[in-house]
Amino acid sequence: MAATISQKLGALSYVLFFSAGAWCWLLFFALLYLGGFYTRTLLALYCAYIWFGPGSTPPRTGSATPFLRGLWVWRKCAEYCPMTLVKTAELDPEKTYVFGFHPHGIISMSAFISFATEALNVSKKFPGIRFYMLTLVQNFYIPFIRDFVLAHGMCDCARATCLHLLTRGKGNAIVLCVGGAREALLAQPNHFEIVLGRRLGFVRIAVQTGSALVPVLSFGENNMYLVAKPEDGTFTARLQRNLLKLLGLGFPIFRGTGMVLSSIGMLPYQGPIHVVVGAPIDVPKFDGDINSEEGKRAVSEAHAKYVAALRGIWDAHKGHYALERKGTLKIVDLPPAAALRH
Ligand SMILES: *[C@@H]1O[C@H](CO)[C@@H](O)[C@H](O)[C@H]1NC(C)=O
Questions:
Q1: Whole-angstrom Cα Rg for the chain
Q2: Cβ of residue 113 lying under 6 Å from some atom of ligand 1
Q3: Residue 308 is inside which H or E element, if any?
Q4: pLDDT tens across 180-198, in order?
Q5: Which of 102, 155, 160, 268 is the most exposed place for a label (fewest CB within 10 A)?
Q6: Are the C-beta atoms of 294 and 212 separated by less than 8 Å?
């Protein structure tokens, strides 16, 4: 079904938000240039706070404002795809949770809409759970955007922040796009390439805090854009890899559709997205040294269970939600023995 203007506006709002890193700088320099003495003083104080002051160190924890999480544009954005949140198990509000979200896709729209807004009624679906979507530390150095993400209850993904959130209260859940920028570069329509094999950080946090791990697989996130995948060894491929190393950011080359013309634009293509939230995997709390042999074993056991659970979601739902899949769920960087299993 063709999208209505309001649904397109919803999707556009998210694209603008995701690319805000760029235009917030423009706004900042425009204000600096055009502003008078007071504006410039305020901007200077603000920057001092976010770059050198208390705002420059973790934990940077937001407090969610129901108004922003409930914004009309986010609901329209969910309708645009349309997007659904599929619950497969209850979550006990007496526990804490580490959610892993896969795949990152180009703009992680379904992660944000599912867990940083109420467009899919996440708080009603999982009563008593407070969701903290985590994002790159880099975002918190950019004027204005940091306050916008904080007001959605988003936090930085530093270790200190994760530990803080998970020891502060029952019912807290952090949500991480585990594969990050590297996974963004692998996003291709109907492909499921997940960067997870060597990502142990989020599991370590679950083990240290005794939080349950919850795998989330988004069917459709990778279908939103047409992505050019440069051949290995070409200039573009090397540039992407170097930017990834240098800045920790992925710069995929992609094409979407437009508000007016369908042939050009940054809007994602329409297509159903099903965000499947798996059953929680209980992880016993490990109090000793996490870098000891015993600690490492606890982490790798929990990681193996997590990988198996993610494959379980794939097997159970690919027949409904990934009808046009090309190949199977591919987990990148797994040790050879585990990779052979499928
Ligand atoms: C969310 O809840 C409201 C009120 O209960 C309901 O009208 C709406 O359809 C729900 N939205 C979704 C996407 O489930």
A1: 20
A2: no
A3: helix 293-321
A4: 888 888 888 999 999 998 8
A5: 160
A6: no
